[in-house]
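Might you be able to check the backbone structure tokens below? Thank you kindly.
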Amino acid sequence: MATENVFLLANSNTIELRGLRNVFTDEYINTANVVATLHTSKGVSVVTPDAITLHYVEESDGCYRALLAPETPLEEGKRYKLHIVAQGEGLTATWEQLIQAKVRR
């Protein structure tokens, strides 16, 4: 069973990339530039500015994190596309996932 990715309305939500590694050396990358964008299904940016910077979590072995503010304009039941790009050690990696906005119950 797949786990649904959820952002909770009117809550702080965490965007996280865990265990970023160099594909050639298998070493953790702790000095990458990591950014995320969040768009509606029609491609409209949800946050301003368009890119959210994820910061390295000290002593975490390749973990990067950002906090999405509780006032981010999400609508209950709607799905959003989260796109993450990491660049470091001459390499680029991208991820996309669908996020559903829900009310905490």
